[in-house]
């Protein structure tokens, strides 16, 4: 089947769902957050932005620690990316601002290998905003 076909979409949805369920087994937002982060991009590439949005809406990461702030920030970048993909320009800026605010508070840590910090939120802004 050609790339982008139904088989790819089905496989992407299955992979994202399995990652999410595995994280849910640990029953913490800190476990589900990285799975959602990866799943969002897989689902968007498969043309399932509605499912990507539902995944993002399904997890709230506490921001009591630098690691939690970094994870919440990267999920905010996902939210901004998704808004850009869905041609919702009015919804792009607020998540970028939130991610930048969190990045300013956390510094250049690298929890989960997500690489969020002020330089990365700036790059996200450059990609998402005209």
Structural write-up:
- There is one protein chain.
- This protein has 130 residues and is mainly α.
- The protein folds into two domains: 1-60, no CATH class; 62-130, no CATH class.
- It has six helices and no strands.
- The termini are far apart.
Topology diagram in text:
Blueprint: H1 6-26, H2 29-45, H3 49-57, H4 66-85, H5 93-106, H6 118-128
Helix pairs in contact: 1-2, 2-3, 2-4, 3-4, 4-5, 5-6
Mean pLDDT value: 76
Order of helices and strands: HHHHHH
By DSSP (H or I, 4+ residues per run), the number of helices equals 6
Strand content: under 5%
Structural category: mainly alpha
End-to-end separation in angstroms reads 35 Å
The stretches of 5 or more residues where confidence is low (pLDDT under 50) are 123-130
Number of domains: 2
Spatial shape: globular
Give the helix proportion (percent range).
over 70%
Number of strands: 0
The rounded Rg comes to: 15 Å
* Main pleated sheet: none
Task: Describe, in short, the structure shown.
The protein is mainly alpha-helical and 130 residues long.
What descriptors fit this protein?
2 domains; disordered C terminus; 6 helices; 130 residues
